[in-house]
Fold:
Amino acid sequence: MKRIIKCGKLFDGTGAQPVQNMAIVLNADRIEAIVDAEHLKKPEYDKIETIDASRYWVMPGLINIHDHLIFRDTIGLPALNSGAPPPKLAIHAVRNSLTALRRGWTTVRDMGSSHGIALAFREYLASGEIPGPRVVACGSPISITGGHASRLCEQADGVPEVRKAARRQILAGADFIKVMASHDPIEVSGPEKTIPEMSQDEIQAAFDVARDHGKLTACHVMGTIAIARVLNAGVNVMSHGFYLNDDLAARMAEQKVYLDPTLSSYGRQTMNPKLKRGAEWAKRHEALLAPMESGFRAAVKAGVKIVAGTDSAGRYAEDVAMMREFGLSPIKSLLACSLYAAEALGKSDLIGTIEAGKIADLVILDGDPLNDAYDLEKVELVIQSGRPLKPSEITINALV
Structure:
């Protein structure tokens, strides 16, 4: 089935400035062409269903590079929520699949779940059993015994055990391998309020297994020692990166490593009283605010490509707004939601831009997010794989 989207302002995600009075021709789940609206006066377009978005902003479907389907937007400490019984985690995954698509997130990268839930939901969502985004998932991250977020992880110590753990995740169907290279904020002496956890050899072992199987690599990492270790091991996407300095940022740029900074989650929302994570939690995380900002600014200065992710607590639009506050240009902050995120997933041949031949993932917004990042929340219509849905229509009954 063919459809036409008449655009008010089109941001195609390639890095070009938005243009007016364009139209997108969809053919089933693909983009067939992008044409001037005047072109639609030709007779061959007369009988094609047209969606009039001439009052709206149209851009590629948003990509959340750092999601957790089993415990995003939950109340209380993340360790308790991520360690809940499987039935409760599955309920969260259903809810978060629906809310993700309502927010215009047509693709998410799940950065860790237990009991194989994200891997299972990847298939449920792909088959249309549950409405939601396309999912790219690591399964369970790998941590040391008792390490960061260990309830969420497959725990392993030493090179042979880490190698086995990575192979088990590949066997389970992981799209990429993630390691917990460092702790979260912790009370320690010294200027860096975090510590490295996995050794250089352990990280290398996990990433070698990933590369042997043609998979990308990711990490939770804070602190200069741990950042250097993941760079030595050849990481593809670095999450958080707090305490990043100019030298390490230059290495990131040279190695073409993407940064997923999670600014909203760690910088604003994790300390929000409404999440009920407690005063002690907030105090520990406040120590990360300065190294979070300085690390991000170092990445921008070095030319590192930035990608947008909410983690467990962040607001997507706030993350983009904070990127701009800390020195990223508005255009590049939108590329963080589209082209750069698709590149970081290894899927830029399919998604991330509005170009002929790509999957027809679009979001139609009642605002201009180039002018105001929070207009990313004004979702009028989501088009996923060519199928248009109003946010109110994205319910458990809205099956393909």
